[in-house]
Amino acid sequence: MGIGYYAKAAVKAVTTPKMREGIKKALFQSYAKSLSPGEHRLDRSLPFGVNLIGHIRGDFGLGESCRLVAAALQASEIPFTICNVPLDGPAKETDLEWAQWESGELKYSVNLIHINPTILPNVVWRLDRKKLRARYNIAFWLWELPEFPREWLYTFPMFDEIWTPAQFITDTLKNYTDKPVYTMPYGLRTPRTDPSVGRDYFGLPRDQFLFLISYDGNSVSARKNPEGGVRAYGMAFSPEDRDVGLVLKATHESEEGLRRMRAILEGYPNLYVLTDSYSREVFNSLIASVDGYISLHRAEGFGLVMAEAMLLGTPTVATNWSANTEFMDQDVACMVDAEVVELDRDYPPYHRHDHWAQPDEAQAARFLRRLYEDRAYAAALAQRAKARLEQENTPQKAAERIKKRLQELRLG
Fold it and tell me: Has domain 199-392 been given CATH number 3.90.930.50?
């Protein structure tokens, strides 16, 4: 019987959640150390290539991230296969774009494990320990703050190295490990849309200038800061501005959270709240159908939805801090100044005394007003943004980085 069986038995034998978590952590830490002992190199007896392990079917950010990594692997022409990992919970997993590459077999010499530390133990215990141990294990992680949770450090030993999509994350992780950490930016593709899906599909008016704020309550609403965006909209416009509106796409948000949003814009007739979960194509169609996208986030590990908005030609207003600044500046987006502040309490998984940004909502409001009043400015901004990403963040460039690192491993 594998360690997963004994781990579950030990965890069941105790009664308090804290004790169960402690035992699970200790067991996994021992297990992780056994996977990558000392100097680990590629097993030459295995075919050279990559086993990509992640949420490849997920209709959420980590799913799209995994698909972008798959696209880069495909463009690199390095052999690969995919192991889909279902995500427990309400999130949908309907994207079958990569289904033909899926396999339950870890057939190649490198495991690229696109699973964040929060659920890593639950996933790894389902996999074959012998096959994990025999392969070179690379983590692909996203993270949003300049501090990394110390309670997750026990996951590091199972990996030989770590990849991230942004230098912002790489710089953070290097403060917590002596393992190699490499930045592998996404190769971005123009997001797929559904030509049959427009404003009518979402019940939105055709004749209003619409801004969009989107977030998932499962991604910590306080970090996404939709309330800041809503307040900025309220500063920029009054209830009498009848030809402008705000779309709030709030997935997995609580009723209390939605009440807070509505209270900020009490009396505004043109607030449209959407709470359904959409496929990626339908969600992309929503972004493409509006006139401006707002992200007054406090921290981002990449900022994928902002990048997608830019590629879809939707002018974007964004906080000028964290990983999104690696592909955004004032020439291609409305960048909102921010003060880096200390968290006054825990926002799990973020901890009190960690740091994130507090964007200038009044400045954001001025940007919203300008996009609404100066359509030529908005159009030129959107055009430059799309052109830059199409030129600088291509799948081929992402593929070249990945191929270079994997060839170094192969020859090392």
Answer: no
